[in-house]
Specification:
It is built from 35 helices and no strands. The protein is mainly α. Among the domains are: 141 residues, no CATH class; 65 residues, no CATH class.
């Protein structure tokens, strides 16, 4: 069963899923009632209906987010009221077949069937491996009120180094989470103690919590103190200096202690940290990280002062993980550092903070960096300018893309967005120079431009790509779009052929060609689009309906 569970994880990360396809799901549900229902059939259901039955999984959530899709909180909530469910769920739930039982746990969770909550709680004591995990996941997804039982379940079954269930647990009632954690902070079970202080980082700050966390910092073994310090940091607990000062000398606790001091609302804690920095010399990466990842504006401002004065190490790099870095209050400081630091790695990071900025100063900074000698800075400034326009930008873009020394592929999207549509000769030349290099970003970028502003002669390029069975899909996408934008009805047969080739792999892969065919109005193109009306992929069926709506 462990093998099965690992396979599920793999499957989630790589498969293309059918979305909310309830009609087809019911047919497969009926098949699951067979006593010989097996692992292969269960895996097939996982692959086809992840958004229905594993909606609570962080992997399913991530996959859908990347695809721009929404997931219902309880996608089968209405299904549980149907006789098909009511007449059969107990048979699956009580089956000797482990695959049927696992499927029942998923169904109960996805339908929020609270009538089965107590049974699932009992199963936590008897089930094994994959079945046990999904039983627990379903209870968590239903936001069970049995918080203590689920705490014990997590202690026994969650891998804290790769936690998938903890995020669901943290969505349970905050007061219950807090009270349960209080009970376990002094447990003899070290895993329980760690989980307890981790949970308290998410339940809010009050006097009792502060006292418990400070005691945990004092009393936990050195290998585990970091968990308690982390909670102190997250809750912005103050008056930490006396308890953390000795821990700055231990590599196990040094960095997290610096972060807690930087996040503290207590002036004494901040002043001590700032004094560690001094007035001259290079500032350690650890201290800079603590300052720039803080929720304390004063600490972040201090970090920016250090960056501006070029006191960071030559190779210093930080991730923009802190939402406070994007605040209006800090914008002038971000701009100031960009204009004054000599460290290109820092500038590259800070340019990304201007992604959502369209004020005059930010725009000027980004446009000026398009001409910088550093390729990375040119790229990130172009990236930050996506979906923005200005007269100055429109004026400078043609010159930039024409200059081989400073142009970057990120400029192509800017050209398209700003509707600069007279550069076909240049991009035809770029394409010819790169057409034999399958790894060339310029090959794809030049074709993307040509597809948006195609000339009649470009159809030769587009057709050659589509006729080549080894062409990259991105090139095929652009070529289909280019022919459609040219209203090239002579290419309908070719587009139909590509559509049929792609549907052998997946109906999803044919969508590009269906969209292209919809722009080339003919009976043949309409017939090809209509052939997908009964696709097993709901996304495709919805697309087809939309394409045919205004035919």
């Amino acid at each position: 069963m462990k093998k099965l569970f690992l396979f599920f994880v793999f499957l989630f990360s790589g498969a293309l899923f059918s979305q909310n396809n309830l009609g087809y799901f019911k047919k497969d549900f009926i098949k699951s009632l067979d006593k010989n229902f097996n692992e292969e059939q269960l895996n097939n259901i996982f692959s086809k209906y992840s958004n229905l039955i594993t909606h609570q999984s962080d992997i399913t959530q991530l996959t859908s987010s990347l695809k721009g899709e929404r997931i219902s909180v309880f996608p089968l909530v209405d299904f549980k009221n149907e006789s098909l469910y009511q007449d059969n769920i107990n048979n699956l739930l009580n089956s000797e077949n482990k695959y049927q039982r696992l499927f029942s746990y998923l169904l109960i969770g996805a339908s929020n069937d609270l009538t089965k909550e107590n049974i699932l709680l009992q199963r936590l004591k008897t089930e094994k491996e994959g079945n046990l995990i999904w039983c627990g996941m379903s209870l968590l997804g239903m936001k069970t009120t049995h918080v203590t039982e689920m705490f014990d379940f997590l202690v026994e079954n969650e891998d804290f180094g790769d936690a998938h269930m903890l995020p669901l647990y943290l969505k349970l009632d905050k007061d219950s989470l807090r009270e349960t954690s209080y009970k376990y902070c002094n447990s003899n079970n070290i895993k329980a103690k760690i989980l307890a202080v981790q949970v308290l980082s998410q339940t809010g700050k009050d006097d009792k919590t502060e006292k418990i966390i400070l005691e945990a910092i004092k009393n936990f073994e050195i290998n585990y103190k970091g968990y308690a310090i982390y909670t102190a940091k997250e809750l912005q607990i103050g008056n930490l200096l006396n308890i953390l000062k000795p821990l700055l000398n231990d590599e196990k606790t040094k960095n997290i202690s610096l972060e807690a001091l930087a996040n503290s609302p207590t002036k004494e804690d901040n002043v001590f940290l700032f004094n560690l920095i001094g007035d001259k010399g290079e500032v350690s990466d650890e201290i800079l990280n603590a300052l720039l990842e803080s929720k304390n504006i004063n600490s972040i401002s201090k970090g920016f002062e250090i960056l501006k004065s070029d006191r960071a190490s030559k190779d210093y790099f930080f991730f923009n993980r802190n939402e406070f870095l994007e605040s209006d209050e800090l914008l002038p400081k971000v701009q100031d550092v960009i204009l004054n630091t000599k460290n290109p790695k820092i500038v590259a990071n800070l340019l990304r903070l201007l992604d959502n900025r369209s004020d005059d100063k930010s725009m000027d900074i980004l446009i000026n960096f398009l001409q910088n000698k550093n390729e990375d800075l040119r790229y990130w400034s172009a990236s930050a300018l996506q979906n923005k326009t200005s007269d100055k930008l429109k004026k400078i873009l043609p010159n930039l893309i024409s200059d081989e020394e400073i142009r970057t592929v990120a400029l192509v999207k800017l050209l398209i967005q700003n509707k600069i549509d007279n550069l076909q000769p240049l991009f035809e030349k770029i394409y010819e120079e790169n057409k034999n290099d399958d790894e060339s970003d310029w090959q794809r970028a030049s074709l993307e431009y040509l597809s948006q502003f195609p000339l009649d002669k470009d159809k030769i390029i587009f057709r050659k790509i589509l006729e080549n069975k080894d062409s990259d899909f991105a090139l095929e996408y652009s070529s289909a779009e280019g022919l459609a934008n040219l209203k090239d009805n002579d290419s309908i047969d070719l587009l139909v052929k590509k559509s049929e080739e792609k549907r052998k792999e997946s109906d999803l892969n044919a969508r590009v060609f269906l969209v292209a065919l919809s722009k080339l109005k003919s009976e043949k193109s309409k017939k090809e689009i209509e052939s997908f009306l009964n696709s097993e992929e709901e996304i495709v069926r919805e697309l087809v309906s939309e394409l045919l709506k205004n035919w």
